[in-house]
Amino acid sequence: MVGAVQLAFRNPMSAASYASECELLTACRRRDIRAFEQLYQNHGPRLKSIAYHILGNRQDAEDAVQETFLKFYRTIAGFEGHSSVGTWLCRIVINVCYDMSRKRQREGSGREEPLEERLAKGDQVALRVMLEDALRRVQLRQRMVFLLFEVEGLRHSEIASILEIPEGTSKAWLFEAKKELKRLLEATR
After folding, report:
1. CA 19 – CA 40 distance, rounded (Å)
2. CATH 3.40.50.970 given to domain 1-111
3. Do residues 89 and 68 lie in contact, with contact meaning Cβ atoms separated by under 8 Å?
4. Where in the chain is the domain with CATH 1.10.10.10?
5. Which of 33, 36, 102, 156 has its CA 20 to 30 A from that of 85?
6. Angle ∠(72,85,2) on CA atoms, nearest 5
7. pLDDT of the chain along its 189 residues, tens only?
8. Containing H/E element for 76?
9. CA distance 51 to 111
10. Between the CA atoms of 129, 97, 65 and 30, what dihedral angle is there, to the nearest 10 degrees?
11. What dihedral angle (degrees, nearest 10) is formed by the CA atoms of 160, 166, 168, 171?
């Protein structure tokens, strides 16, 4: 069954259209491959972006998104609808990324290039590399709020739901992330 889900994501079928998220979820519960495909098209890019910013590697990010949709496929029956499906998928991808990061640390095999090697690839990307490096040094919980708010454009209420924190905490962590990011970037000048 899992192979069918992977096949659907690699070989897009004619897209079905669902009038609401409720209809889409109902179709997913029936194991309608077109519904999963639409869900992937709707949420895949955001999930890849989140995964990339956590893991720092595009291949790992794609693997994390694939694992996210497999987990979604396996657990759709348990989704109670207390949040939007997008919020639920974000929570899953974040957990998958944390699991991958912990596994990578245990194995001691980080794929990320050292800062010096990335800077040597060209001056055009130097600023981006410095920003990414500084962002990686911001505390994880604050970095997550920063990425979800500034990069993904989510509202604090959505972030609070995804990270299972109060909305005020989301706002405070964003403030702290920006403050720390500014400090780190000024220190590299």
Report:
1. 16
2. no
3. yes
4. 113-189
5. 102
6. 20
7. 444 444 444 444 445 678 888 898 889 899 899 999 999 999 999 999 999 888 888 999 999 999 999 999 998 888 887 888 888 999 999 999 988 988 887 877 545 544 444 444 455 456 777 777 888 888 989 998 998 998 888 999 999 988 889 999 999 999 999 999 889 888 876
8. none
9. 14
10. -160
11. -30
- Residues 6 or more apart from 69 whose CB is under 8 A from it? 5, 9, 36, 39, 40, 44
Which part of the chain has CATH 1.10.1740.10?
Answer: 1-111
Alpha helices, H only, the chain = 2-10, 21-29, 33-55, 58-75, 85-107, 115-120, 126-137, 140-146, 156-163, 167-187
The amino acid at residue 140 is: L
CA separation for the pair 45, 51 (Å, rounded): 10
| Rg, Å, the chain Cα set | 18
Specify the length of the chain in residues.
189
